[in-house]
Specification:
Layout lengths: L3 H26 L4 H6 L6 E6 L3 E8 L2 E6 L2 E6 L11 H10 L8 H13 L3 E3 L9 E3 L2 H5 L5
Antiparallel strand pairs: 1-2, 2-3, 3-4, 5-6
């Protein structure tokens, strides 16, 4: 069963890992907007790069996102143009928790309920009213760290 604390830790870890992968891809390809670069065929849709810190990164761009594999890290990231905002949803977090963190089968409905509760508590934002493609994102890292739940 998910708790608010485990959910907050999951979000922090997902965002941290996603940010590292995005930064590595941007550095390796020398461009900030990866989605635009793939669309214009400036960079390949799939392949593998070697990053000096992370090592080998296998990647496959899809739509506005990218699935990346770095050692035991498996992560699907929705790219928000050239923004540094890392969006997430229940499906991505379930996949990350299962494939990377070894949580086993994670219930998608339970994950969504926890996201909805964090949203209601104003600890994460929803992109329903913004151009971030229906994702959630952190209100601020400090808010997630200092959240108080019964």
């Amino acid at each position: 069963m998910l708790t608010h604390t485990s959910m907050q830790d999951l979000i922090r870890n997902y965002v941290k890992d996603a940010a590292q992968v995005i930064a590595a891809l941007r550095t390796s390809f020398g461009c900030r907007n990866l989605t635009a670069a793939v669309t214009s065929t400036q960079i390949p849709r799939l392949g593998e790069i070697h990053h000096e810190i992370l090592g080998a990164i296998s990647f496959q761009f899809h739509g506005r996102g990218c699935f990346a594999s770095v050692g035991s890290l498996k992560i699907d990231i929705e790219l928000c143009g050239d923004s540094d905002i890392i969006g997430f949803d229940a499906w991505r977090l379930c996949r990350y928790a299962s494939e990377t963190l070894g949580w086993g089968e994670v219930d998608l409905d339970e994950m969504q309920a926890e996201l909805d509760q964090l949203y209601d508590d104003q600890l994460i934002r929803s992109s329903k009213d913004s151009p971030l493609f229906g994702l959630y994102y952190q209100s601020s890292d400090e808010q997630l760290r200092s959240a108080r739940h019964p």
